[in-house]
Amino acid sequence: MTYAPVILLIVGLLHWTTRATMMDKLADNKRCGDPECSYVLSMATALDDFIAPDCRFINLRRGQMVYVYSKLVPSEGAGVFWSGSVYSERYVDQMGIIGYFPAVVVNETQKFTEDTVAMQTTDMDFYCH
Ligand SMILES: *[C@@H]1O[C@H](CO)[C@@H](O)[C@H](O)[C@H]1NC(C)=O
């Protein structure tokens, strides 16, 4: 009886680990506005629709405004990916969800800072719920 809370906790943890997926890193390094990557680096507009191929990415619709939070530093030959979230009054459900998208599908319209911090990415940067 006394063990019940512990067992519940373990079951809960197992459930949590099976639901969470550790995905491959898209890059080893990134640039952000601050060490926590909480500053918006810039605003961009989606030039095209982008369908997220897996849970690391976000969907974009052509014309949507995007807040850019980080820019991955691509390894040689790899695509350039940025992370951000969509600003939209029509698709409120997507607001606040941060994910990656190819830099080529957006047009950066307003930069808020030129000062960026270079950092290594961690597994948590590519963690999926
Ligand atoms: C990107 O935005 C700028 C400024 O709004 C605009 O002049 C330019 O034509 C846009 N580029 C593309 C590819 O849409």
The N- to C-terminal Cα distance equals 32 Å
CATH class designation: Mainly Beta
Element-by-element helix/strand order: HEEEEEEEEE
Second rung of CATH, namely the architecture: Roll
Query: How much of the sequence is in beta strands?
Result: 25-35%
Look at the helices and sheets and give the structural class.
mainly beta
What's the Cα radius of gyration? 17 Å
Shape by Cα distribution? globular
Uncertain stretches: none
Structural domains: how many: 1
Total number of helical segments?
Answer: 1
Question: Could you report the average pLDDT, rounded to the nearest whole number?
Answer: 86
Instruction: Name the CATH superfamily assignment.
Output: SH3 Domains
Query: What's the CATH topology label?
Result: SH3 type barrels
**How helical, in percent, are the residues?**
10-25%
Largest beta-sheet characterization: 7 strands, antiparallel
Number of strands: 9
Bound molecules: 2-acetamido-2-deoxy-beta-D-glucopyranose
Concise summary:
By secondary structure, the protein is mainly beta. Helices cover 12% and strands 33% of the residues. The protein has one domain (23-128): SH3 Domains (SH3 type barrels).
